[in-house]
Amino acid sequence: MTQAITPPLTLYDRDLNLWLEEAIAKLKTGDFHNLDVENLIEELEGLAGRDRRELESRLTRLIEHILKRCYVNLPECYRGWEITIVNQRAELTTLLEQSPSLKSYFSQVFDRAFDTAIKLVKLEYPDTNFSAVWQFSRNIDSLLTIDFWRKN
Fold first, then answer.
1. Residue 5: pLDDT over 90
2. Left, alpha or beta for 131 (phi > 0: left; psi -120 to 50: alpha)?
3. Cβ–Cβ < 8 Å for 16, 69
4. Angle, nearest 10°, between helix axes 16-29 and 37-71?
5. Which pTM was predicted?
6. Each residue of 103-124: pLDDT tens digit?
7. Are the C-beta atoms of 100 and 52 separated by less than 8 Å?
8. CA separation (Å) from 17 to 14, 37, 50, 115?
9. In this predicted model, what pLDDT tens digit does every residue of 68-81 receive, in sequence order?
10. Number of Cβ within a 10 Å radius of residue 8
11. Which of 80, 89, 95, 152 is 20 to 30 A from 37, alpha carbon to alpha carbon?
12. Is 26 exposed, middle or buried (0-12, 13-18, 19+ CB in 10 A)?
């Protein structure tokens, strides 16, 4: 019977945090020759994808709660929905301040975020007549500041 010899695990496989610390140290000292470039690229791509997923997730949650606040007549729930709206807006604002280039992605995923949010609220409140299209501004600044449920 032959035994398969498994290669030893790399630092990247054994301890991601330690690998990151060592990669940062190598970058700071200019030790590019000993840098694990392949895994560094993988990690950087993962970070970019993570931010895009977070933006879409938070945008979906924001839209979901704006829809609830605008269409669902449950005054006892308004405060909770408004708190969630404030939290999501704050997190989106921070994310966009850290990565302004995500503003273009914001526009790209708006329709998908709205579609997901409308499905969720319709499931949760099947007797409520939600608009099938977004009735408010899609402008990023408006979404992050305007309380659409307040009558001007």
1. no
2. beta
3. no
4. 110
5. 0.80
6. 999 889 999 999 999 999 999 9
7. no
8. 9, 16, 17, 37
9. 999 999 999 999 99
10. 7
11. 95
12. middle
